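input
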Amino acid sequence: MSKLRLGPIADDKPVKMAIELPGALYRELVAYAEVHAKATGLAEPLPPEKIAVPMIERFIATDRGFATERRRR
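output
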């Protein structure tokens, strides 16, 4: 089994937001969700909109440039 950067995903109250994604990125999210489901023992893959949120959260949490700028405020 592969070691993914994304672990279990918490269920949180969502805020509605609409975005457009390139088709290729959407397909990658679907594929990632399938691999994530296998790695975490989920019966079904999460929908792309659920998998994208923790990916964005992780990206922001590990972006050193953003953290530096945020501390300056």
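quick obs: The radius of gyration is 14 Å.
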